[in-house]
Write a structure and sequence with these properties.
Oligomer: single chain
CATH architecture of the largest domain: Sandwich
Number of domains: 2
CATH class of the largest domain: Mainly Beta
Number of helices: 9
Distance between the termini: 54 Å
Helix content: 40-55%
Strand content: 15-25%
Largest sheet: 4 strands, antiparallel
Structural class: alpha+beta
Mean pLDDT: 88
Length: about 220
Amino acid sequence: MTHAELAAELLEIYPALAGLSPGLLDAVLAEAQRVSVPRGAQLFAAGAECRHFPLVLAGSIRVAKTAEDRELQLYRVAPGESCVLTSSCLVGHSAYPASGVAETDVHLALLPRSLFERLMAEHAPFRRYVFGLFAERLADLMGLVEAVAFHKLDRRLAAALLGHGPHLELTHQQLADEVGSVREIVTRVLRSFADHGLVRLGRGSIEILDAPGLRQVASGS
């Protein structure tokens, strides 16, 4: 890929990079490292040093916090978005507190720490973009804390099942990771949903039979 093609792709997906000074744009094109990683690959781990700022060009990254045998999904990073944990670690010169895994095949442009710091210092639109996402993710994480702390598992699980169409290709472990529980308890709740005619369980799949009923459960009705 030529520099012109990379510039066009970056500006289309990340408009905050528009209007860079010629010198800063040249630095981005010269120092950005194109990387492709397969689905399931770990991009960073808790405790690891943060050295790059990733710009997601294609695919999705799943960021989660793991403790013992439990995992809690924090958020996903799609093209045009940024990983706020990475931003936080780069700004605070700290290690990653969680892990990131490629949910699909992922294509990235990695900016070195020095270039990220230069962009933050010299390009106001990029700085506003980074801090704007901090605010959005903080609101999302507060909602996650509220759900985990105050909502019952059946409500969280019902909400997680909705909005994906009538057929979900998900394992019980994947659902447990998403709602911050363990597989055995999620399986028990899913069987209860099946007994009440809300879902039909298959091997690695779930069929939604009664979406309105699931919405009632999710709302606590």
